[in-house]
Write a structure and sequence with these properties.
The protein has helices at residues 12-16, 33-44, 58-64, 83-93, 110-125, 176-187, 192-202, 221-231; strands spanning 2-7, 27-28, 31-32, 49-54, 73-78, 99-103, 106-107, 130-135, 145-148, 154-158, 167-174, 207-211, 216-217. It is of the alpha/beta class. It has a single domain, classed as Spore Coat Polysaccharide Biosynthesis Protein SpsA, Chain A. The strands form four sheets. The chain has a seven-stranded mixed sheet, sandwiched between helices. A two-stranded antiparallel sheet has the order 2-3. Strands 7-13 form a two-stranded antiparallel ribbon. The two termini are 26 Å apart.
């Protein structure tokens, strides 16, 4: 699989709380989020690495340009209206094949990253169109709830809670067919990642899921403190 990181958002909530650096450069375990993720994707075995970064985040480009991650690496500026547009723009630049994609602020322990990567690759190889990494740990201000059948296939996504709790965690697998569908969805005016996922499921896409116990989404300074404490704990 190819690796893709989406870092096209403004990070306005962190900035509003006094965090002076762009979200991709916020430090987790002593490293910038984006560097930590690129190293992780390389370690997982991604054939290539692509990072979509908001074009006015000059400091991010300064940190990443010329840096080696042991894989062919592409750093691309973007200024897109939604996460779906960032995704579609990134997918257009990546060589043919399945893609493992994550938001820049998705935090999991290394073993969970390894587990979801292997499971995602297997599900796509078995004919899945897409895979959602999900968790029962609801940490987002605007969570995307996932309805699944007993085999883990996704039946739908919504803003309304489901029981037992299950929400998207900011990491995804996309087959070549889903890559083409993302471009089609943008052309039809679909907005945001959640809109694309709902559209893909509604049109009959086979979307699987991989569950991990906990994922933290870094939107606030408190999330960052929680993530650093969590990853520093022996339990993580």
């Amino acid at each position: 699989m190819h690796g893709l990181i989406l870092a096209g958002g403004e990070g306005s909530r962190l900035a509003g709380e006094g965090v002076a650096v762009p979200k991709p450069l916020v430090r987790l375990g002593g490293e910038p989020l984006v560097v930590r993720l690129l190293d992780m994707l390389a370690d997982l075995g991604c054939e290539t690495l692509t990072c979509m970064v908001r074009g006015d985040f000059a400091d991010v480009f300064t940190v990443l340009e010329g840096r080696g991650f042991g894989r062919p690496f592409s750093l691309r500026p973007c200024r897109t209206p939604s996460s779906l547009h960032t995704l579609a723009s990134g997918l257009e630049t990546i060589p043919d094949g399945p893609v493992f994609c994550t938001m820049v602020d998705t935090v999991m322990p290394p073993q969970d990253w390894r587990d979801v990567y292997r499971s995602t690759a297997a599900a796509l190889a078995a004919g899945g169109d897409a895979v959602l990494v999900v968790t029962p740990f609801v940490d987002d201000e605007s969570p995307v709830y996932v309805r699944r059948d007993s085999a883990g296939l996704v039946l739908g996504i919504a803003d309304d809670p489901v029981e037992p709790p299950c929400v998207t965690g900011g990491a995804y697998g996309f087959s070549p067919a889903a890559r083409r569908a993302a471009a089609e969805a943008v052309g039809l005016g679909v907005q945001r990642m959640r809109g694309f996922l709902a559209w893909l499921i509604e049109r009959g896409g086979r979307v699987g899921s991989v569950t991990v116990p906990r994922i933290i989404d870094i939107d606030h300074e408190a999330d960052l403190r929680l993530a650093n404490a969590w990853l520093g704990s022996p339990k993580a």
